[in-house]
Specification:
Layout lengths: L1 H6 L6 H9 L20 E4 L2 E3 L2 H11 L6 E5 L5 H9 L2 E6 L2 H14 L4 E5 L12 E6 L8 H5 L1 E12 L4 E9 L2 E10 L13
Parallel strand pairs: 3-4, 3-6, 4-5, 6-7
Antiparallel strand pairs: 1-2, 7-8, 8-9
Bound molecules: S-adenosyl-L-homocysteine.
S-adenosyl-L-homocysteine binds next to strand 2, helix 4 and strand 4.
Length: 204
């Protein structure tokens, strides 16, 4: 999976590739999909949600350009797979998930695997999480119609926010880098995510 789907498509960061090799994706998908766990696509995880495609997880993680002691906010924990990858490349991960049953399952799974310093919290991630701000990196694994203002405000100096922005059917992956009070936006390509449902996302 790591060579065929991820390195060959251009993900180069050794720490990200190593993280993708270390975290067992089959433990993050429901038993009936385990045989497809290393295939090149998203899979259902219950509650109408999906575990992201491995390549997208690796690409978004690389785009954050994280360092060993960085603090990261992840929005849309879902299965916890992306959370586990982030915890391999950064110092501390705060993961937000709006569906309590998914948060509970992810928390238990991540604790049993002992994959790093991770906190999973049930909250509307479109508001960010002020209690632990600022963040060196923020990653949203669900689509927003526009960039939520609280996420910009909770970025540390030089920090990066990576998220899909668009309508319910297609989005552009965007990366925002903070320099003082200005925000540099890069638009990186077409993606497709489930909606971010919340006050600064799509309304449920
Ligand atoms: N990275 C996850 C992706 C899960 S899909 C994985 O690979 O497993 C996106 C997740 O975002 C879903 O679990 C959904 O419930 C969650 N979500 C949607 N809106 C949210 C919000 N406002 N706050 C937190 N989580 C949200």
């Amino acid at each position: 999976m790591v060579w065929q789907q991820i390195a060959r498509r251009g993900v180069q960061s050794p720490v990200v590739l190593r993280a993708m090799m270390r975290v067992p994706r089959h433990l993050f998908v429901p038993p009936e999909f385990r045989s497809q766990a290393y295939a090149d696509n998203p899979l259902p995880i219950g509650s109408g949600q999906t575990i992201s495609q491995p390549y997208i997880v690796a690409w978004m993680t690389e785009l954050l350009e994280l360092r060993q002691y960085d603090r990261v906010l992840e929005i849309g924990v879902g299965s916890g797979y992306q959370t586990a990858i982030l915890a391999q490349v950064a110092g501390q991960v705060i993961g937000l998930e709006r569906i309590p049953v998914l948060a509970d399952q992810a928390r238990a799974r991540l604790a049993s695997l002992g994959l790093g310093s991770i906190e999973v919290i049930v909250a509307d991630g479109s508001e960010g999480y002020l209690e632990k701000a600022p963040y060196n990196g923020i990653l949203a694994a669900a689509a927003t119609p526009h960039i939520p203002r609280p996420l910009l405000e909770q970025l540390a100096e030089g920090g990066r926010l990576v998220l899909p922005v668009g309508d319910l059917f297609e989005q552009t992956l965007e990366r925002v880098t903070r320099r003082g009070d200005s925000f540099h936006i890069e638009r990186l390509g077409g993606v497709r995510f489930v909606p971010l449902i919340g006050t600064h996302g799509f309304m449920g």
